[in-house]
Write a structure and sequence with these properties.
29% of the residues lie in helices and 24% in strands. It has helices at 2-12, 29-41, 55-65, 78-89, 104-111, 163-169, and strands spanning 46-51, 70-73, 96-99, 116-120, 123-125, 130-133, 149-155, 159-160, 181-183, 188-190, 196-198, 205-212. Pfam families: LUD_dom. Residues 34-211 form the LUD domain. InterPro entries: FTHF_cligase-like_sf, LUD_dom, NagB/RpiA_transferase-like.
Length: 214
């Protein structure tokens, strides 16, 4: 008993030592983009590189190629405003736009009838090839989970080396959301016979637009 008491006493007054964080790789921005792109493409994600000037034309081309007839977007975000202006300027090059501005109970039928959704991202992780999404009132969680095609817009400068760097630089310990999503590819699942199927529990297609500043 004396030995146990001594151990307890030592642990009680031991000096606190924070856990040492691993050093992130020293990749350049170009290397981070390349790593994220190759890692995501390995799990059937489509990654398109563009810049501020040609994003609109690249986006319109993808929408047309995939035959998207109804697109869900968030009108009151920076990306939503850009999509809205695209529609105003070239109405024939973009599909019908739908906004998710009601409760899920009232909008459920419409939510499950859209062809695709487009959302912003909070950042990316080069090491694992992942997107970071923090659902908001404007872009609820279901926007990236229900439509069969998810179009995600990622600013190149928000790509981090690894998850540890994300937590530190974004100060997650001070401002954790209700839920955070890390997305690497389209939804996929396999049955007992190992038959791989896409889109059973989420989007069957994920398209990422990586926008590099001019």
């Amino acid at each position: 008993m004396k030995r146990l008491t001594t151990i307890h006493s030592r642990s009680q007054f031991a000096e606190f030592r924070p856990m040492k964080q691993p050093n992130p790789p020293s990749w350049t921005l170009k290397e981070k983009i390349s790593r994220l792109k190759s890692t995501m493409e390995a799990v059937h994600t489509e990654v398109l590189l563009c810049n501020d000037l040609d994003f609109s034309s690249v986006f319109q081309r993808v929408v047309e190629e995939k035959g998207i007839g109804r697109l869900l977007y968030a009108r009151n975000t920076a990306l939503g405003s850009q999509i809205y202006l695209m529609k105003e300027r070239t109405p024939k090059k973009l599909p019908e736009l739908a906004t998710y501005d009601e409760s899920i109970e009232n909008w459920k039928e419409q939510l499950f009838s859209v062809d695709a959704s487009v959302t912003e991202t909070r950042g990316g992780i080069a090491e694992t090839g992942s997107l970071i999404l923090w659902p908001t009132e404007e872009e609820p969680r279901l926007m990236s989970l229900v439509p069969p095609i998810h179009l995600a817009v990622l600013k190149a400068e928000t790509i981090h080396h690894n998850f540890s760097e994300v937590i530190q630089k974004e100060k997650w310990s001070e401002q954790m959301p209700t839920n955070a999503l890390l997305i690497s590819g389209p939804s996929k699942t396999a049955d007992i016979e190992q038959t791989l199927v896409y889109g059973v529990h989420g989007p069957s297609q994920l398209v990422v637009f990586v926008i590099q500043s001019n």
